[in-house]
Amino acid sequence: MPIADDCINNLDEFVKKVVTEGFYPLLGYIVDIDFVLNEGSRELAEEAAKRYYDHLKAPIQKEFRDNYASMMADEDAVSAYGNNMMRNPSNFRTIIENKININF
Hints:
It is a single chain. It contains seven helices and no strands. The protein is mainly alpha-helical. It has one domain (about 1-95). It is elongated, with a radius of gyration of 14 Å.
């Protein structure tokens, strides 16, 4: 499996590749920001978070942005999107819990 080989043989390069391309580039930008944060660096996680946000559809970007602003200020979610994304492991939850900065 090429993805497993890349991960095992050169983790640092694999994490950087995931940040720029995602895990499966042909399917869109699919990334696990928690993986990038744990195996890479905070800076790479911030870059991945921004790329993740950029790949969301416009209505979801608005939901994301509104909830992000509120929750990063230690306030409650402003819509069901924020509440739902915090219930289970998700990129949004990782971003909020780790206070990952996204410059919109």
